[in-house]
Design a protein that fits this description.
This protein is α+β, with helices and mostly antiparallel strands and 244 residues long. Helices cover 21% and strands 39% of the residues. The protein is built from 4 helices and 13 strands. It has helices at residues 2-19, 48-51, 156-159, 218-243; strands at 29-42, 63-64, 70-73, 84-90, 92-97, 102-110, 122-131, 139-147, 161-165, 173-176, 181-189, 194-204, 206-209. The strands form 2 sheets. Strands 5-1-7-8-9-10-13 form a 7-stranded antiparallel β-sheet. The chain has a 6-stranded antiparallel β-sheet with strand order 2-3-4-6-11-12, with no helix packed on it. Strand 11 (181-189) and strand 12 (194-204) form a beta hairpin. The chain is globular, with a radius of gyration of 27 Å.
Amino acid sequence: MPSIRALAPIVVVVAASAALLPANAAAQLGTGTVSASFDSPTPACITTTEYNLLPPGTRVPVCDGMGTDAISWGDPGTFGIGQSAFSFARREFIDVPLGQKFVLGTLTYYNGTIFVGTEINEVFLNIQTFSSQSAFNQMLSLPLSIVQTVNQGISPLADADFLFFSNALNFGSFRVLERNFATVEILGSFNSLNNEGFGQIIAGEGFLSPSVGIIPEPGTLGLCAFGVVTLLGVSRRRTARLNA
């Protein structure tokens, strides 16, 4: 019996000490670096050097820089504007808890003017995190769909080219005005390395949209509205005749 009474105070002390621990004492925090590269374009493309050896007027997909963190694509021809391009700037992460969103890096998109038939429609952005802690040493492969609009010169917003995550349409799209660039944050979180969508636009002439569809030109919207009104008018006249 005396030995049982002697143990009781020890139990109380341990319980009291546990209660004094901070709530996040057991949280695992990660610190490390990020790198990225682009690859696997669709459709498959040849380099600019190879493209320039083809007969004049040939239109096939052309791209450069695959396997690096900066790529370009398309034939700007006589437009003199330059190829369209992506580049990824990495970020360090410091004391990031599991499950919390953070900035993996920034993606810069240059919207060049290129000939139809020389573009690519999708490319993979492969992001690798490096850390001394295994839970934060991971890889994420993001398929990026690229939509290059036909420029009609009526609405800058409608002419903006854009990209979206092919396997995560819920994150919407990142759009860049014609012949401009813009830079957006790419967000992630750890457990397994997860895509958390777009962050803020930090530079350039671009905007985020909840949609992954093409914005209609104002003239197209007007024609659609006219068509709806016309159909309503025809429907009402038919209804009047039937009622008569």
